[in-house]
Design brief:
heterodimer, A: 116 residues, 7-stranded mixed β-sheet, 4-stranded antiparallel β-sheet, 11 strands, B: 113 residues, mainly beta, globular
Chain lengths: 116, 113
């Protein structure tokens, strides 16, 4: 099946710094990618839909200035957590779907962010 | 709107026990249905899928049948192993690849030896 690669798998940063997470589709072109956040023992929370060459669409309650999303090519989307604080510590997962109706989604390995 | 409801966990079973995780959905149109599995510290992996009514998806001993009449897609396995311990998500899609899947809240399964 298709592969989505996410990097880094874990990162520790200091409060106030920014962290960039990359999500790549390795063997297909993803005009759209999705970013999720997952708290411990909880379900996935969709943060935003990332569209190649245009602005991301954020879900209600997600701060677009804190979670910057860039989708500059058909195979790469990035999520930057700006001015990170401890409450931003979480597991972030990206996802992409191949073109076509009712196709499954492919997920990255996830990034564990810890802000200290 | 579209939604997925799956049984609350956690579910704890002994090895070789029978597993059922219930999933029901509400959707417009004709959705495709999916089960994903998430092992600790990892992303989600597709476990199985079904794209039309009466289809049965199967993989690694897991099965689920798309039941349109009951709007259900229950996950079953005849004999679970410790290595099946994970979180299982039911999901649906009614649209093309530029929309996200709709997920249930997940069910945590723990299998003890």
């Amino acid at each position: 099946g298709a592969v989505v690669s996410q990097h880094p798998s874990w990162v520790i940063c200091k409060s106030g710094t920014s962290v960039k997470i990359e999500c790549r589709s390795l063997d297909f072109q993803a005009t759209t990618m999705f970013w999720y956040r997952q708290f411990p023992k909880q379900s996935l929370m969709l943060m935003a839909t990332s569209n190649e060459g245009s602005k991301a669409t954020y879900e209600q309650g997600v701060e677009k200035d804190k979670f910057l999303i860039n989708h500059a090519s058909l195979t790469l989307s990035t999520l930057t957590v700006t001015s990170a604080h401890p409450e931003d510590s979480s597991f972030y997962i990206c996802s992409a779907r191949d073109l076509g109706v009712n196709t499954e989604a492919f997920f990255g390995q996830g990034t564990r962010l810890t802000v200290v | 709107g579209n939604s997925v409801t799956q049984m609350e966990g956690p579910v704890t079973l002994s090895e070789e026990a029978f597993l059922t995780i219930n999933c029901t959905y509400t959707a417009t149109g004709y959705p495709s249905l999916f089960w994903y599995v998430q092992y600790p510290g990892e992303g989600l992996q597709l476990l199985l899928k079904a794209t039309k009514a009466d289809d049965k998806g199967s993989n690694k001993g897991f099965e689920a049948t798309y039941r349109k009449e009951t709007t259900s897609f229950h996950l079953e396995k005849g004999s679970v192993q410790v290595s099946d311990s994970a979180v299982y998500f039911c999901a649906l899609s009614t649209n093309s690849g530029n929309t996200p899947l709709v997920f249930g809240k997940g069910t945590r399964l723990s299998v003890i030896a």
